[in-house]
Each structure stands twice: as structure tokens, then as C-alpha cells.
Amino acid sequence: MNEREGFSVAGIPTIVFCLVLALLGGACYVGMAHNDAPWLGLVGILIHAFTLFLIKGFFQVAPNEGQVQQLFGKYAGTVRLEGLRWTNPFYSRRRVSLRVRNFESSKLKVNDSDGNPIEIAAIVVWQVVDTAEAVFCVDDYENFAQIQSESALRQMAQNYPYDAHDADKPALRSHGEVINNHLRDEIQARLDKAGVKVIEARISHLAYAQEIAQAMLQRQQANAIVAARERIVEGAVGMVAMALDKLREQGVVELDEERKAAMVSNLLVVLCGDRSTQPVVNAGTLYGG
Q1: From the first residue on, what is the mean pLDDT of each consecutive set of 10 residues in the chain (289 residues)?
Q2: Rounded CA gap, 27 and 33, in Å?
């Protein structure tokens, strides 16, 4: 079922028409009193009854709002023209907001693609674009949008790892734009039947579940320490190689392989150590002590 334009006319001219009818009915009462004509009173009563019936057809449409019309249970159209309108008094009407709305899902506990339990939540921005589908294709489109969004969020989270193990593979924590676009598409696919358009969907909360949060924090700290140590060792080896090259080029001292090894060992200890070193003066020789 798709939305179509409903029947309505401008309300102000119709009000003028109803006032004219009311005055005409009053004139009938006056004529009955002056001419002693009971039938004029009956005509006046009918005119006023008809006027009251017409008044039932007035309604207002606010900006970014639609009025869904039904005639004896059958969909008759949607009026989106704002202002005072008049339509068939037999029509029943239901207001549907077309404004942009948003909600934040509850925090869901799911397993990512690696099987790690995580907590995740999202903010969804949406609006109704087809009032007929929103009213007649689902029972409660607001509740439907929220529940289906949480279902899509759960499905999406199970397709990605929390942390990236491969630079080419998206992860929940590091590839926000890719994840948000996927989430929006997942939600839109579920809400199409409800006449709802998803404008934006973004992750608002992402964390490891409480039972493994401490272990994962230790793993992240270990990864950071290993990465830092790799950088330190890489820099230290480069500095040692540069020092040996400078000593050889400038002829400061001639070192055999054993003395080079000792120098390299001492320099690496100094450069890679996490504590400040204390100088030691060797009063003997490398070979004899």
C-alpha cells in the first residue's frame, strides 16, 4: 500500500459558506414567525443540522505533518497541505508526524566475529516518508522502528571484530564510517516496509563486556608495549650502526670483532633500557680485566 493524496479543500472559504448557511437557517425561523409558515421552521432546522454536519469536516494540518484519511475503514488518502482544511465529514483522520526523529538503542551484549562478548549501542535518526505504509503495514511504526533497529545493530556487530587484526578488514573500533554505513543499510532494509527512511545511524557506545574487559585491557597494553619496544629497538640498532660507521670513517679507533660486539652490547643496553644507566669505568683491559 502506497501513499496517495487525499481529498481536502481550503478551510476559510468553507467557513464562510457554513456561516451563510447558518444565516439562511436563521432567516427561515424569522420567516416562520412573520408568515406563520411551520414548514420554514423545518427547513431552518434541516439547514442548521446540515451546517453542523459540515463543521465536522474541518481539521488542521501542522507543518511536517500528514492526516491519514479513512472512509469506513478504507484508506482514502493523506493530506499534507498545512493550514485549516475541510474534507468529507464521513472521513476519519489520524495524525502522522513527518518530522525527523531519533532515539538511542539500549546497550546490547553480543559476540563479535571473533566470539568476544561486547556491549554496543547506536543512535538512529529517521522519519516517516510514506504515511500509508507507516499506519497500515505495521501495527506501531515507532515501536517497530526501535525493535528492528536493535535487531539490525545486533546482526551488524556479529559481522565485524572489535579490533582490527588485518589492515584490509574493517573493525568496529577503527572503521567508524564503514560500520555506520553498514548499520544504516541494515536498518533501512528492515524499515522499508514501514514507510520509514533512515537518515543516519551511528554507534554511540562500544566496549568489551565486563567479564573480559580487564583481560582485553591487559592485551591492549601488551600490544602497545610490544609496539613501543619494537620502535625503540629499531632506533637503537640504527644508532649503533651509525656510531660504528662514524668511528670507522673518521679513524678514531680500530675495533676488532670482539670489541665491536662489546660496544654494541653496551650501547643497546643504554639505548633500550627503561631506566637510566650508571657509568662504569673499566680500569683493566677487555681481555685481561
Answers
A1: 90 92 85 72 87 93 94 93 94 94 92 87 95 93 94 92 79 88 94 94 88 65 71 77 75 67 70 63 53
A2: 10
The residue with cell 566475529 is 113
Residue 188 three-state SS: helix
H or E stretch at 65: strand 65-71
Residue 168: CB atoms within 10 Å? 5
65-71: strand order across its sheet: 74-79, 65-71, 92-97
**Which CATH code fits 101-208?**
3.30.479.30
Whether 202 and 147 have beta carbons less than 8 Å apart is answered as no
CB 283 within 8 A of CB 289: no
Distance CA 243, CA 219 (A): 36
- Residues in contact with 104: Cβ distance below 8 Å, sequence separation at least 6, in sequence order: 121, 122, 123, 124, 204
Residues sharing a CB contact under 8 Å with residue 90, sequence separation 6 or more, in sequence order: 71, 72
Cα 48 from Cα 98, distance rounded (Å): 37
* CA proximity to 131, closest of 68, 87, 75: 68
Cβ within 8 Å of residue 117, ≥6 positions away: 109, 110, 111, 208, 209, 211, 212
CB 9 within 8 A of CB 85: yes
Cross-sheet strand order for the sheet of 83-86: 9-10, 83-86, 58-61
Tell me the C-alpha distance between 151 and 144, whole Å.
11
pTM of the model: 0.69
Give how far the C-alpha of residue 173 lies from the chain's centroid of Cα atoms, to the nearest Å.
16
Distance separating the N- and C-terminal Cα atoms of the chain: 97
Do residues 206 and 174 lie in contact, with contact meaning Cβ atoms separated by under 8 Å?
Answer: no
